[in-house]
Design brief:
By secondary structure, the protein is α/β, with parallel strands linked by helices. It contains 9 helices and 8 strands. The chain has one domain: Metal-dependent hydrolases (TIM Barrel), CATH 3.20.20. The protein has an 8-stranded parallel beta sheet with strand order 1-2-3-4-5-6-7-8. The protein is globular and about 50 Å long. The structure holds zinc ion. The site of zinc ion (ZN) has 6 residues, from loops.
Length: 270
């Protein structure tokens, strides 16, 4: 079976992870820009990071037969510094035509502060102005419901934003409907220490259905791994769902969402 990991931070992963993914049938990944685990000291640090996402990881991934795409933004965790954020946002428009860049992401909220909302809105503005796909990071744990509600209201109130061009990621049982019933794609992140387990993801796929859902590992520098994507597929199959149903979730759905960008080449399997 073939897989796509729609959200993974390859800059933090080893070559063993690339090899694991290749052996499991992962043929493409998308890597949103995010927090490095520490606050960067200047906009030039982001300029280098963007170059790493656009130039270095696609080459590393290609050695394992994996097609690598990325997203650009300043993440919510560093958005508290509005002045730095604005310097970073200025770097983005000239890079949007790069063949590896799918859109603006992962933007969103972390602690739901006023400054985070300001920087979020300014990046939604860039996405609208340049007609970009959007990948949304929703906050963790206790801030998630409120944050998802603020994010989805801002997006719904902007008539230029087409909900089907937005993936609201890190959904859980109490936020999934808010994303999908408003017409957005819903992302399930299999990151057991702070997000969803393979079992909970399989439950949600069964309860909510598999339309407009993307499952990802969001593996980064924390306790995470690309195996959580494939483990979730195994759990889904163990419950009696066919390979064709699994292909819909783990391959075709990401192809459909990303395929709204002309840069994405893979097509859903009939
Ligand atoms: Zn992420």
């Amino acid at each position: 079976m073939r897989f796509i990991d729609p959200h993974i931070h390859c800059v933090s992963r080893t070559t063993d992870d690339y090899q694991y993914m290749a052996r499991c049938g992962v043929v493409a990944v998308s890597e949103p820009a995010f927090w490095a685990g520490y606050d960067r000291s200047s906009a030039s640090s982001f300029a280098d990071y963007f170059r790493h996402l656009m130039e270095v990881e696609p080459k590393r991934a290609a050695r394992y037969g994996i097609d690598h795409y990325c997203w650009l933004c300043i993440n919510a965790k560093e958005a508290e510094d509005v002045q730095l954020s604005r310097e970073v946002i200025k770097l983005i428009p000239p890079l949007l035509d790069h063949p590896r860049v799918l859109g603006i992401g992962e933007i969103g909220l972390n602690k739901n502060t006023r400054n985070e909302i300001t920087v979020f809105e300014e990046q939604v503005e860039i996405a609208a102005k340049y007609d970009q796909l959007i990948l949304i990071h929703t906050p963790h744990l206790e801030d998630k419901h409120k944050g998802t509600s603020i994010i989805t209201s801002i997006l719904k109130n902007d008539k230029r934003i087409k909900p089907e061009r937005v993936l609201v990621d890190h959904c859980e049982e109490h936020t999934f409907r808010m994303a999908r019933e408003n017409g957005f794609w819903a992302g399930l992140t299999i990151y057991p220490v702070s997000k969803v387990t393979p079992q909970r993801a399989a439950d949600m796929l069964e309860v909510f259905g598999t339309k407009m859902v993307c499952v990802n590992s969001a593996s980064d520098w924390g306790e995470s791994g690309p195996n959580y994507l494939t483990d979730t597929c195994l759990e889904f199959r163990r419950r009696g769902h066919s390979e064709a149903e699994a292909t819909e979730v783990f391959y075709n759905n990401p192809c459909r969402f990303f395929g709204q960008s002309a840069k994405w080449k893979l097509k859903p399997i009939a």
